[in-house]
Amino acid sequence: MQKIKTAVVGASGYTGMELLRLLLMHPNAELSCVTSRQYAGQPLGSIFPRFSQIEGSDLSFTEPDAATIKASGAEVAFLALPHGVAAEYALALLELGVRVVDLSADFRLNDPAVYEEFYGAAHPATELLKEAVYGMPELKGRSESIATARLVASPGCYPTSIILPLVPLLEKGLIDPQSIVTCSMSGVSGAGKTSNTLFSFCEANESVRAYSVPKHRHLSEIEQELSIAAGEQVAMSFTPHLVPTHNGICTTTSAVIKGSADEVSAALNNAYADQPFVRLLGEGQTADTKNVTRTNFIDIGWAVDERTGRVLLFSSEDNLGKGAAGQAVQSFNLMTGLAPKAGLQNI
Question: Are 27 and 36 in contact (CB under 8 A)?
Answer without folding.
Answer: no
